[in-house]
Batch of 4 targets.
Target 1
Amino acid sequence: MSVRVATLNNGMRVATDRIETVESATVGVWCDVGTRDEQAKFNGVAHLLEHMVFKGTRRRTAASIAREIEAVGGHMNAYTAREQTAYYARVLKGDLALAIDMIADILQHSTFDAEELKRERAVILQEIGQSRDTPDDIVFDHFQAAAYPNQGVGRPVLGRAEVVKRMKRDAVAGFLARHYAPSRLVLAAAGNLDHDHVVQLASEKFDALPGPVEHARDRARYKGGEHREKRKLDQVHIVIGFEGIGHHDPDYYTLQVMSTLLGGGMSSRLFQEVREKRGLVYSVYSFASPMRDGGLFGIYVGTGDTKVRELMPVVADELNKLAQSATEEETARARAQLKAGTLMALESTSSRCEQLAQQMLVFGRPIPVGEIVAKIDAVDAAAVARVTRRLLDSPPTLAALGPIGKLESRAAFKARLN
């Protein structure tokens, strides 16, 4: 098996996936820290921290961080999500030590310079503004907030503009010190590498992380709700959904198959019925967003204001029909799509690195691909219908932006469901 795992003396885990047939490697640190770990008065601090660690350390300026990785043809980036934050780099195999050194440097020795913080706050305010100007993006934030009101997991990853504007250095540095303990970090690497060498580098470089900190997340409490915002747009952007299923739930893979069958491709029920047969939308798809303690299932549609009245009953009808029965043929097709995506991801060092890191954070161990495929193959049509019924038992959540005058209420949509 190409995957190996070690735990450093400080508690940080190191997981590697050796791929001898490539000339590159992807390495990164995935942190069990995200937006849901923020206090409301500091909403956006996790994302601001992710930006600020690239703005200079004791050894490197912001410009030299960029120049140094690009001087070897590498690429370095990061992202913040509601439950995780990641910092990663892709380089040629001979430059793996440099990548690990740079990631260790930004996570342990960032200076959080006041002038850099001022500039980066302005950049993030632009990012928030851009998101607000992208209705098919921001509608998902409204959907999340309506599903999980007054909770960290329901707040926007980018943060609220009025909070970001006044965020101070102490808030950013303090968030790192409180949350980036070694036990909550996984260093993952995939590519042409030597496991023992990666472990040695990690042990040498990650020697200044904060000590263990008591941490307990509030449990996500799905409520269901509605957000409607009238805007002068050409389309109504709608997300309608229900309480989903978490990573550890026995129905996790069944929901993935169900979502693929319902709205995961051009052969899916929603695409065929809503777009191909009726011409009500340009874009329609479903999604399943799991967390450790729950999740969301949703359907996105973008349609004109003259079509929205006809659209919602059709979506409800497709959900009702799937809750009654699915065919073995379409279930097999959805299983094949999921398996193909899983196996194709094995061809990318970046995908294998991220998958390994996610498995370590969520499950505490690497999951063999054969185990994943077996669980997908175990899903049958009866299970798909059963999980659909399970979803429909929860109160729906509706978020909509645009010319919403003809859009029915959440209560009216709920009444359509069997």
Note: The mean pLDDT is 96.
Target 2
Amino acid sequence: MSPKPKRAIALKYKPGDDHAPCVTAKGTGRLAERIIKMARKHGIPVKDDPDLVEVLSRLDLHDEIPPELYVVVAELLAFVYSLNRQKGSK
């Protein structure tokens, strides 16, 4: 059995401007690899969470995440904010 192709989802959220995070990019295989590469190139944190990617991949581009995912995505944002704080303290 061959391994599943890599998948990636990019979210955008600006507190105060956005009601909820929304999907800005998504892809499988080579496109997923490009999304991840671009994120890293621009200093955007990348978190490997196949279960979350599975759920988010069902959304269309520019869709806001549904309320039932708020807690999970809030945990992801907390992860990103903590990484940003660590970078700022160095």
Note: The first strand starts at residue 7 and ends at 12.
Target 3
Amino acid sequence: MPQPFGIRFESVCKKFGAVTVIPSLDLEIASGERLVLLGPSGCGKTTIMRMIAGLEQPATGKIYMGGRMVNDIDARERNVAMVFQNYALYPHMTVFENMAFSLKMRKLSKAEIGKRILAAADKLGLGALLERKPRELSGGQRQRVALGRAIVQQSPYFLLDEPLSNLDAQLRTGARNELVDLHETYPSTMVYVTHDQVEAMTIGQRIAVLNKGQVQQIGTPGEIYNHPANRFVATFIGNPQMNMLPVHIGDNGMVLAGQSLILPPGMMSELRQNIEHEAWLGIRPEGAVLQGPDDVGFNGGAGITIEGEYLRSEYLGAVFVHHVAVQQHRLQIAMPRPVSIPPHSAASVFVPFEQLHWFEQGESERRIPLSGQYSIITPSPGPVLVS
């Protein structure tokens, strides 16, 4: 039985003229959840939101809201509240009047309008600003007014199209927390559009990662980060992004940038069941350890050791991002400490077996799922160079 305020797309296709922007979309949003549509510019995420709102119509397929097909339902009848990227406040109206406008159009009583606005203003810290006009507000205050205008509608559907993109970094952090708190207070079905992975990871209960109008993966932030469905998702989520290296899987191990590395027999067996010889090896920057020739040996258990050339480091406050060249490839290693390695000196990158991610080469570039149940072997002291 469909949930009371869920949203479902069934084989939805959207075209603008001869250009297909959504080839075929199947997506289900649970009633009352916070779903984030995440992807690069032009991937179709805003178009999906506009189809929910009724501002765009699908070429084919069906859209259901609350169990009812809404393809032919006018936008005004869908009971949807939206927050736009540019806030869309009326400049000649006060904060109170902006928040009250949609309620007046619905012919609510003055008492009910005042009650809703005061409750939302108290929650958003707008009580002292109700008589000001938008030009007298900061960017963060305008953003809260736009949220308040949507909240007072008490709609079962709450759509947000990159509402924080105009705020500076400090304001965005506070606004993300406010949005999560607001959703817990007003548990409507929230669909949030963004290209910012940090917003997606901190706001979304689930994330739908899109590329070229197609859902690449949908899951919780933890599922998306730890078990990306394909190479695109793996490199789109994470900052710094996941390192990707082409490798050749041989009979006894793998060859990476001219270095022959030994893998556990169980891992080798599973890899050969899924691929012929070529694959992508993914390494999260925080999943590896960098050491120079004079540093103490590794104490990270079983794994692989990749030899390279240390280039430089970036200090980001919480971490150092170290850059290492491995032939024509570059690895980024995120660590909480600096390293005493002169630039352009030899360096070793150690990666535990459990931190290795595998992806097919070819059109799909899908993740190769491995069991992780391998007998522990002692890592070799270093790679063997292959001519």
Note: Confidence is low (pLDDT under 50) at residues 376-387.
Target 4
Amino acid sequence: MFRIGDVELRSNLLLAPIAGYCDLAFRLVVRSVTGRFALSDPPRPLPPGVAEPGVGLACTDLLCPQAVLRQSDKSLWLAATCPADQPLCMQLYGRHPDVMAEAACWAEAHGAATVDINMGCPVDKVTKKNGGSKLLCEPNLAVEIVRAVVRAVRVPVTCKIRLGWDDASLITRTLPPRLADAGMAAITVHGRTTEQMFRPSVRLEGIAEVVEALAPWPGVKVIGNGDVGCPEDARRMLDATGCDGVMIGRAALGRPWIFRDAAWYLASGHKPLPVPRAGRARLVLEHFQLLRRYRGDRIAINTLRQRMARYSAALQPWPHLRREVRYIENAEAFEDYLQAGIERLTAESPEPTAA
């Protein structure tokens, strides 16, 4: 078991809070992969400590505290959860300690098992409001926010940071110890500066510096983030940095089974059987059905049209998939189209062999 504060997680793999993607429907899809597909051929016991390999903690999209407290429709949807969506982290971004603390209380009351403070988002619409990674330029304020939120809630409080605003203002050795002193239970480190955005490659040595800086606080977990696209990348992140866990973001958008694969690989050193293409298509259908349930037909169709660009690579060969879904206007017809594809893939694809 992996723990953040007093919260027990089934694995040390976390779903990142990706703006525009990590809604309730998608989180439920990610959670559902666990234990659904054969892991090996011939069947063999799961490795010790892996009861049901998969995601340990999933996070909401970024939540604006003022909008949460106003209970705007958009914020209520972004924060929506259900009993199957646990344990859940709700992530807040902002710069006003009292407002952040009040919003954290709201999050705790509405199902958050942990509350995360975003100090890592590099996009302009967040940093121009002096939130996200802009807080790395104001370390005293960052510490004050953590202290206020920790005082306000009983659940563990975590932070997500980058290495600094730019190479001239790295905070890997300075800010994390101060956040730990303020009561932070875990920290996720994206191994780039704000200036770097998402290119070039993640800097594992920067994450290792945070691990080293927090060595005097053994109870504070360090979670590495960035460029984890396969189980081997997760292993490399842990080995090269000494971090305790791994957060996966963009790779999960088209392959929600990556947590199942990575958990098995980390525990056994072997990859499990790949999820069959028909099984992958079923997950896409389930994603669509969940979107219909929680958001309605129109948003479900529009969302899956956009997300098919992520899913399609793992479903090939499926001729004209991305083009054809653009012209389906009816939700029932959309489901029928996906179901027909599942039936074709089931008939065409033999059971995979072990990777």
Note: The first strand starts at residue 2 and ends at 4.
